[in-house]
Amino acid sequence: MAEKKRLGELLVDAGLVTPEVVERALQMQVLRGGRLGEILVSMGAITDDQQTEFAAQQLGLSVVNPSDLYTDTVRGILPRYICQKFNIMPLSYEGDNILNLAMWDPLDHEAIESVEKCTGKAVQPCLARKTDITKAIRKHVKLTFTDIFNPLNNTPLARGLAVAAVVLVVFGSVVSYQYYKELKYGTVTHTADATLYKNRDLIVGIDKAGKATLLGRGAYADGYYRITFDSVDLLGNFIEKQKDHLSDTQYEWAQWALTMVK
Fold first, then answer.
1. How many domains are contained in the chain?
2. Domain range spanning residue 35?
3. Could you report the per-residue pLDDT of 195-233, keeping only the tens digit for each?
4. Does 136 share its domain with 213?
């Protein structure tokens, strides 16, 4: 049986590339690795479809359309980012342990090993055009959070969703922190004449003249009161004397408020 021609030879025979272009691609392959067909495509020497057509001749395979052969039995077996990384698409099961896999490059051993490790199935490669694989991925492989936050996924949609998710997380954190802060420390209001600290049924106010006012209701006292002192220190002495009429949280908050106004 005659030896099958290599991809470069097939492309030269078809007049699509020159021997010099193939030689250049082979040199690049030595330096960077990868498949020759993929390098020629990246060089612009051939198209994706031409690569697929001549790979079919080289390997003796038929070109399939993934969408025609796809079955729901393989839904979810591979994440989208894996499919996009290797230009592959799961199609169907053959028996219990064989996965028919559409591939733009059936000789991509890294892709085959990754899929077999991920699925626990043996891979049966099926040759398909990259454009058809891309369409099938978009149609049949669900986008998940794993895909969105995977650094390999760099589509505008993924970037947009990732940014939106980060914004929501940050916004939620800010809101949660603000809620916690108000719960612990209350609110601070600045007016033209005074600054008011409010929390725990108490209000501590300091006016421009330095007078300190306490308004509110003690935890163990009836009714509301208002009392004004000429200084913050005098208010602090009053709070110490009335400590038994305040709850522990009221007393702690009042002490914090006093440190803020001094």
1. 3
2. 7-59
3. 888 887 888 888 888 888 888 776 665 666 788 888 888
4. no
